[in-house]
Amino acid sequence: MDQKESVPTVPRRRAQGLGRERILEACLNLATGTTPDALSFRKIGKELGADPTALYRHFADKDELLLALADKVISMGMIGYVPAPDWEESLRDLMLRIRSSFLQYPQVATLAALRVTGQGGELQFVEAMLSALALAGFSRHEAALVFRACGDFMLAWTGFSAGLLLLGQKSEQDDAAWVSSYDQVAEHDFPLAVTSVREMAAVQDEENYQFALELLLGGIAARLQH
């Protein structure tokens, strides 16, 4: 996203004390909702009471702003983190707390959760994950593989979950449509699918994530025994 977002020419207004942190806080206020394109420069400018073009004095483009936002959300998720004596407990904590932080701001999660920020919050998270894996006894190479698997698992699922939050009621309607469509299928042709669909559709996203996380952690622990 190299091109600056197009904004209309309007009389400039001077916002007092406008800076990166104030802009990021305004973005987080907007990102808690489900309004489409909530993080457009026009809407951010309105939230700040400033000309949207003023944002370019602090961020080169929208991409830079999104990366800064993503890193701030990660930093917020790391607040209060203390490594546990058990590596598995530390991994679980890290992968739940960063997910939880992103899901408070679904607009940020869908736009930037899968990006590399290269900034302080991300570096703190990466260091904590690798420290837990070193404690477990993984070699540097194995730790890198496990880290990628865990990080990609958490971020990809979180982006998906944020998308569900933004869909809102439409997501529930999709689950209902799943059940009703299988009701039209002959049970003798697909007996397991037809008889299990209601139980599958009833599984909530967070329950699903935590179950899958335990499967992942169990696989990592089993790998240590080889």
UniProtKB/TrEMBL annotation:
Pfam families: TetR_C_1, TetR_N. It comes from the Bacteria. Residues 17-77 form the HTH tetR-type domain. Gene3D superfamilies: Homeodomain-like, Tetracycline Repressor, domain 2. The keyword Oxidoreductase does not apply. InterPro entries: Homeodomain-like_sf, HTH-type_TetR-like_transc_reg, HTH_TetR, Repressor_TetR_C, Tet_transcr_reg_TetR, Tet_transcr_reg_TetR-rel_C_sf. Residues 40-59 bind DNA. Keywords: DNA-binding, Repressor, Transcription, Transcription regulation. PANTHER family: HTH-TYPE TRANSCRIPTIONAL REGULATOR RUTR, TRANSCRIPTIONAL REGULATORY PROTEIN. This is TetR family transcriptional regulator. It comes from Paeniglutamicibacter terrestris. The lineage of its organism: Bacteria, Bacillati, Actinomycetota, Actinomycetes, Micrococcales.
